[in-house]
């Protein structure tokens, strides 16, 4: 009996641009399935069960982030960890060009996570991460990201977390009705503008070709490490108050 063994490629063997394209196709597929009523409902009720497509999209974001962290922390060699961080930074550059803010921020949240950030990296890597963080700087109500998004033409995949945050803020901070049962049209107008801004990105699709080899490599972004394990590995590499242990 003949068994065909297919060797799984490594992250470093795949082209950064092609990885970014396939991440974007997966994101776009999930983003297109999100229905506007479930976005409004989630902002009102915070119910995952009643917003299934939205929930899948946010889960995908979290899985991607933890997958990237695991890819880095499961490497025992310091130089290999460094190469993988550089690779993720290259992928993020392409994601930014593709207007895929979802995957861009998922990878950024991985590189900027405490278990990874606390390890000592070359100055160039730290500068790149710091520069990338400027886009999603939460000071001034995410002004840099909002300005960038406003100037972005479709196709685009926005960071859904900020959309939900804004809608929740509008819902909680404004009553549905004013005195004597008058509809609060100001609240409705704010909700409409937020939803319309999201809808304009759903009208245009990416024309990348699906690459099954890379899709298989992602393996549904299954990650090996939980949060506690990540901290244990991080502290084994660099004990508290000490320099990292070189493999």
What does this structure look like?
- The chain is mainly alpha-helical.
- The chain has a single domain (11-216), classed as Son of Sevenless (SoS) protein, Chain S, domain 2 (Orthogonal Bundle).
- It contains 12 helices and no strands.
- Helix 1 crosses helix 4, helix 2 (36-45) crosses helix 9 and helix 3 (52-73) packs across helix 5.
- The radius of gyration is 20 Å and the shape is globular.
| Class derived from helix and strand content | mainly alpha
Number of helices: 12
Helix content: 55-70%
What is the count of structural domains?
1
- Unreliable sequence segments: 1-5
Q: Distance between termini?
A: 41 Å
What is the overall shape? globular
Strand content: under 5%
Provide mean pLDDT, rounded: 90
CATH class: Mainly Alpha
CATH homologous superfamily title: Ras guanine-nucleotide exchange factors catalytic domain
Return the CATH architecture.
Orthogonal Bundle
Which fold name is given in CATH as the topology?
Answer: Son of Sevenless (SoS) protein, Chain S, domain 2
Q: Give the SSE string.
A: HHHHHHHHHHHH
């Amino acid at each position: 009996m003949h068994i065909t063994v297919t060797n799984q490629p490594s992250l470093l063997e795949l082209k950064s641009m092609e990885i970014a394209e396939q991440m974007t196709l997966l994101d776009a597929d999930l983003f297109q399935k999100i229905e506007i009523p479930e976005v409004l409902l989630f902002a009102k009720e915070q119910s995952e069960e009643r917003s299934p497509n939205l929930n899948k999209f946010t889960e995908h974001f979290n899985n991607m982030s933890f997958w990237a962290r695991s890819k880095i922390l499961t490497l025992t060699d310091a130089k290999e960890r460094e190469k993988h961080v550089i690779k993720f930074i290259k992928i993020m550059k392409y994601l930014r060009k593709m207007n895929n803010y979802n995957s861009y921020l998922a990878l950024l949240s991985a590189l900027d996570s405490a278990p990874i950030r606390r390890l000592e990296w070359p100055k160039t890597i730290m500068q790149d991460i710091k520069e990338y963080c400027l886009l999603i700087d939460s000071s001034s109500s995410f002004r840099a990201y909002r300005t960038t998004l406003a100037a972005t033409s479709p196709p685009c995949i926005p960071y859904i977390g900020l959309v939900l945050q804004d809608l929740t803020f509008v819902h909680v901070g404004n009553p549905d009705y004013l005195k004597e049962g008058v509809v609060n049209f100001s609240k409705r107008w704010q909700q409409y503008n937020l939803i319309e801004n999201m809808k304009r990105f759903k009208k245009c699709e990416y024309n990348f070709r699906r690459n099954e080899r890379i899709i298989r490599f992602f393996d549904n972004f299954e990650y090996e490490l939980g949060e506690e394990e990540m901290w244990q590995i991080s502290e084994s590499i660099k004990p508290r108050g000490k320099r990292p242990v070189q493999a």
